[in-house]
Amino acid sequence: MRWRLQRASLSPEEAGLCGCWQFLAVWRERQQLRAGMVTQSSEEYAFYCTSAAAKQYSAGQLLQAIRDHWGASENGAHYRRDVSLGEDASRISHRTGAFVMATLRNLLLGLFELHQHRGKTKARTFPGWRRQLTTTQKFQLITRTL
Length: 146
Prior knowledge:
alpha+beta, three-stranded antiparallel beta sheet, 5 helices
């Protein structure tokens, strides 16, 4: 993969975003290889804003921060909420309803992790844990205090 990063430094007032001190444009070129031969090539541009001062991080450090962010959010919590709980398929469009459902999904995943931490389940994944619980156990999780 090849990449190029360009930055534009500005004040939050100029950006129109509170705390934004830089806009970043990242160009990426990806190549898929098979048997040492390029089978597919693609380019993309991605745009970001950051509260970091212009001289605070090098280009490499900013790119690592972008990769780390997506690794944590997309491959971590978001992946689990979407695959295990169908978040992306939700048809809730009202902001308050979406916030409530996201909170409930996070609560369920937190309960699963708490049960794992306390040794109350042998399930390795959230779907496995959910399938193991009886209706009575699910009701108890909601009604009793932890």
